[in-house]
Specification:
The chain contains twelve helices and 19 strands. It is an alpha/beta fold and about 525 residues long. The strands form four sheets. Strands 1-11-10-7-3-4 form a six-stranded antiparallel beta sheet. Strands 16-15-14-17-18-19 form a six-stranded mixed beta sheet. Strands 5-6-2-8-9 form a five-stranded antiparallel beta sheet, with no helix packed on it. Helix 2 links the parallel strand 12 and strand 13. It is globular, with a radius of gyration of 26 Å.
Length: about 525
């Protein structure tokens, strides 16, 4: 599978997690690069420094994680089942030793086993000196997240965030080694986690690895000195990133045989202001073999009072602008079905290239006062399901919310019922919190097919378009494959749904009377 920034999935789909798993990070460029795996706890803190795998500590206490330097990078062999429960997440990072920025690299490749790869270049980063490349974490089993995000503060920010600290050279030479020593507080360039503890510091390269014991106590904290650290090799053998091999998740792109007018031509003729969105969207469509897909597209937007800021500053209109090209591509008529919801919901006129700039009405507060200012997700979900009850086309729903989710049982019941219908729910959190059940979709049992995904954005306007479309379309292809083979499109699956079985039971009971 060729993964993108933001790709999340269950490891068990691709690997036997009871067997050792190899993760490889490689960076090529003019600088010298270091790689690290942080084993952190539920608070994202390095509460046990023995689970920090790097150049001076290549093995965790029981060999659960073993690092090895390779050409242009480092590999980590991991026994997930052997990790202690206190280790909730493994965070894999790369950082620059010395001058340079991640925006100047030639290539960054992330590999999980031999089935999942992700490749990035300098254009994907800016002036950062460190990258969080990958996370592997517990969530109803082991999952992975291709993060590929930089830290503007460099290695010191990474260390501070996970409990380490970059020391000055003088501080390194004179650092106390007794347990009672008080470390210098780190200069944090990122917001520290709420839970605090004694930070660890990385020693210079060449320092003998620490002796680990079964009973672990912190003596001298790890210390790292940027200028005293030296590599034994100043140059790496460059690696070449092979041409991506396609998998079921991202089949090779094929030319359209459906006779569809190109997306570029549609947008340039009908909505030229949106033409810059075509290229990043088309790249993601091609990667996922979605160019010939025909589907209905719907947009549902929260209009509760807490969303007022997003209406006032144009964020909601920007959301409409960026979802419309998806509808233009998938829907033969180029229409975007559109709902607002608060305490109740209202279905709006379809959005298209001729009216999209008026999709958010100037008097939106009047609409809000009519439907109520609280958030009632079940009422609009039920209305969407009713609207598409008899469709024989796939339906792709982008559902925007700022959180405060509380109707957990109703939402679960509706998602289970909808899993027998050709409706895929892509929930997107915007500027919010308290997403509740939406953050637990991976663990929602009882569904006929996995029909929903969720991710959250702090600021919709600032997310790069290629990243946005990658995340929006990440799980849609797998759902399309599932519904085609399980009778969802032709309606036969509906006979297995809970509501249909209940109706059959009631009807049978009445006939026996």
């Amino acid at each position: 599978m060729i993964a993108q920034r933001g790709t999340r999935d269950k490891l068990e789909k691709y690997f036997d997690t009871a067997r050792p798993l190899k993760v490889t990070l490689q960076i090529t460029g003019r600088a010298t690069y270091d790689f690290c795996c942080f084993g952190v706890d539920a608070a994202d803190k390095l509460s046990d420094d023995r689970y920090m795998i790097f150049y001076n500590q290549l093995r965790s206490p029981q060999g659960e994680i073993v690092g090895a330097e390779i050409a242009s990078g480092m590999s980590f062999t991991i026994k997930l089942d052997a990790l202690p429960q206190s280790i909730q997440k493994l965070v894999f990072t790369g950082s620059i030793d010395g001058a340079g920025t991640m925006g100047e690299i030639s290539a960054h490749k992330i590999s999980i086993g031999d089935q999942i790869t992700a490749s990035f270049g300098g254009a994907d980063f800016k002036a950062e000196k460190a990258i969080t490349s990958l996370e592997i974490y517990r969530k109803g089993g082991w999952r992975f997240n291709v993060v590929a995000r930089g830290f503007n503060g460099g290695l010191d920010a990474l260390l501070a965030f996970y409990g380490g600290e970059q020391a000055d050279d003088d501080d390194t030479d004179s650092a106390p080694t007794t347990q009672s020593a008080t470390p210098t507080p780190p200069q944090r360039s990122v917001s520290p986690p709420a839970k605090s503890h004694t930070p660890f510091k990385i020693p210079p390269k060449g320092t003998p690895p620490p002796v680990t014991n079964q009973t672990h106590t912190h003596t001298a904290p790890f210390r790292f000195s940027a200028s005293s650290k030296r590599r034994t090799q100043s140059h790496h053998t460059p690696f070449r990133i092979p041409s991506p091999t396609q998998s079921d998740d991202h089949p090779p792109p094929r030319s359209s045989a459906s006779g569809k007018i190109s997306l570029e031509k549609k947008i340039s003729n009908g909505a030229p202001k949106l033409i810059s969105l075509v290229k990043p969207l088309k790249v993601e469509l091609e990667k996922r073999n979605l160019l010939d897909v025909t589907a209905r597209v719907a947009l549902v937007v929260d209009m509760s009072g807490s969303m007022n800021r997003s209406y006032n500053d144009g964020t909601v209109q920007e959301i409409v602008n960026k979802i419309l090209p998806v509808a233009v591509q998938f829907d033969d008529d180029g229409n975007l079905d559109f709902w607002f919801y608060g305490s109740n919901c209202t279905r709006r006129p379809n959005v298209n290239m001729s009216n999209y700039e008026q999709a958010v009405p100037a008097d939106w507060r009047t609409v809000q006062s009519r439907i109520g200012g609280s958030n009632n997700e079940p009422v609009v979900m039920a209305d969407v399901m009713k609207a598409f009850d008899t469709t024989t086309l796939p339906v792709y729903v982008v559902f925007i919310t700022d959180g405060g989710i509380y109707e957990t049982s109703k939402i679960k019941k509706l998602l289970i019922e909808a899993s027998y219908m050709p409706i895929f729910w892509q929930f997107v959190g915007v500027r919010g919190h308290g997403y509740g059940v939406l953050e637990q979709l991976d663990n929602l049992s009882g569904r006929y097919v996995d029909n929903a995904d969720f991710f959250a954005l702090d600021d919709f306007k600032t997310v790069p378009n290629n990243e946005l479309y990658s995340r929006l379309l990440n799980e849609f292809p797998a759902w399309l494959r599932a519904i085609k083979t399980r009778g969802v499109l032709d309606g036969s699956a509906r006979r297995r749904s809970p509501s249909e079985r209940e109706s059959d039971y009631i009807l049978g009971h009445l006939l026996r009377l």
